[in-house]
What we know:
By secondary structure, the chain is an alpha+beta fold. The chain has helices at residues 3-10, 26-36, 56-62, 70-75, 92-101, 107-121, 126-150, 163-170, 200-203; strands at residues 48-53, 78-85, 154-158, 177-186. It is built from 9 helices and 4 strands. A 4-stranded antiparallel beta sheet has the order 1-2-4-3, with helices on both faces. Helix 2 (26-36) packs across helix 7 (126-150) and helix 5 packs antiparallel against helix 6. 29% of the residues are buried. The mean pLDDT is 98. Flavin mononucleotide is lined by residues 13-14, 16, 68, 156-160, 181, 192, 195.
Amino acid sequence: MDEDLIRLITGRKSIRKFDPEQKISHDELSRILQESCRAPSAMNLQPWRFLVIQSKEGKDKLRPLFYNNPQLLDSCSAMIAILGDLRASDYKDHIYNRAVAEGTMSEEERDKEVKLISELYDGMPHDAHLTDVSFNSALAAMQLMLVARAHGYETCPLGGFDKNQFDATFGYDPARYLPLVLIAVGKPAEEGFNTVRLDTDQIVKWV
Ligand SMILES: Cc1cc2nc3c(=O)[nH]c(=O)nc-3n(C[C@H](O)[C@H](O)[C@H](O)COP(=O)(O)O)c2cc1C
């Protein structure tokens, strides 16, 4: 058993006040995001997209949409918005051609997968598509929180922002991009508080 990994997971707490002096470099954030994207996704379509908000201008743009304590926004090293891309399947050829080029898949397997993606996603009911994109992107969001921790940072996931205004504010096409959650990242300036979890006998059924 990997006790370090268990500690990394069970020791995570949402942090709502960060040290504003601590910056994260572009290179390190890129690495954190790349590692987070090892999350699994349906048909490996990777529908998550990230907007990294680090500059004062970026934070000022977000501020009117931000329902949480402004101190959280101001003090974090980066506020990372995770959006779901409803046109993620446009990347199917790119993804599967690369798999062939890298020798992990035959051309026949690629053609089968690409055809299946078209059958599944072209004409998928909108509600099912929203669920698909949200569910898959949430896996990357969780992974991001844990990877950031492994790099020595803490995080806070935030749903409290105006999702209806987000796309227009940051220049995304609202018909395509679904703003899902913000993840504040930085060095903590306070301890996170302890939160309770339901017991397994309340949430698990065994057959
Ligand atoms: C999707 C999502 C949205 C959240 N939105 C907010 C938020 O807007 N403001 C906030 O202070 N915490 C927010 N949280 C953090 C939760 O309150 C927190 O995860 C929960 O209480 C458990 O605490 P822990 O993260 O410290 O384990 C959010 C968490 C998730 C997963």
